[in-house]
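Issue 218. Parser rejects a valid record. Input:
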Amino acid sequence: MAKYSYIARDKSGAKINGSEEGATQDEIINRLQAKGLVVVNILAESAGKEALAPAGSPAMVKVKSSPKHNRINNDDLTLFCRQLATLLGAGVTILKSLDIISLQVASKRLYLVIKDLEKNMEAGLSFHEAMAKHPKVFPELWIHLVESGEASGNLAVILSRLASYLERNAAFKKKIVSALIYPAILFMAGMSALLFMTIKIIPTFAEIFSGFNIKLPFLTLMLIYVSKFIRGYFLIIILGIGAGIWFFRKYTSTKAGKKKYEEFLLKLPVLGGFFHTLVIERFTSEMSTLVESGVPILYSLEIAERSVGNLVLGEIIRNIKEDVRAGKPLGLSLERSNFFDPMAVQMVTIGEEIGELSNMFKRLNAFYEEYLDTFLVRLTSMFEPFMLIFMGAVIGIMVIGMFLPIFEISQIGGK
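Output the parser choked on:
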């Protein structure tokens, strides 16, 4: 029998230090978890080293890999969350799990963050308190879910749900990006062709026409003037576009500017419905994860308000939260907002009545994801013929404008 010193936290988050005797480290961990404690760290008192894994159990191999990039992307965070959930679910302590993950991360910055988490937790902070020191890395959704998991003693389960949420979001974003790549390439190719004709082809024809004493048609003159303007002020035009983009980003980085821009997107004729559904999909995804993880509905709405990423919907959620705090049903509050469609209102109302609110949010999220997928497929299928028609019309006008003088020259030559 060996003696083990441990650091754990109870359901209230209070730190507990103690020691236990047992045959193996896993036996002590299971014993503490059975008492409702979350094990932060455990060490064998003999030689001050961690106890070895019990005979017959799979050895945990640490493989050191060199970080490959500096920044922290969504894939890094998703993998970190999934690895941590898996290790904690296997009974590994939080500190040991972080140490194992730190040896395998691809991001240099995430490696430093994980080491800082270890340092802060060894100093006595809880996991969510240590995460809160890195708000630019861990969103509020993470911190509040981890806090809920620590309080309930189900941190591994909560992290597993968070990892599933992140994986769904990442897969959905990749679908959107993949759907938009082809239209973007087609648009850029079309604009490049038009620019080439304007800068190279039209000036060549204009030089040819200058050698003939003829009156050029209005369409030809307009094309030549446009070509001269673009060639003469090309650098200024590029700088102007760059300045416009900079001012636009500066304006939308302010709260008022961001809200105006979001309102504009939601009012667009065809795409407005897409953006409207997109923000609702994000809301239902977060709410399904929060409610399923046992976070109270008011607290869930408060987290969603700050993390949904849309100021227009954030204000609506704030009003809904106040209605729920006053004792009104969530379904009724959604209906009064005039932002959610009747199907969402009815499903949330039914979910409240039968006690299946998280499942209803999950089904709504699946429906909106499917709707957005279908919308993107239709949009991209419509964009190709639209671009072809547009390009054909513009190039056709250019060709006509350049060949009209040639017909006139041929007629003069025939006489």
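Fixed in the parser; the record now loads. Residues 46-63 have pLDDT under 50 and may be disordered.
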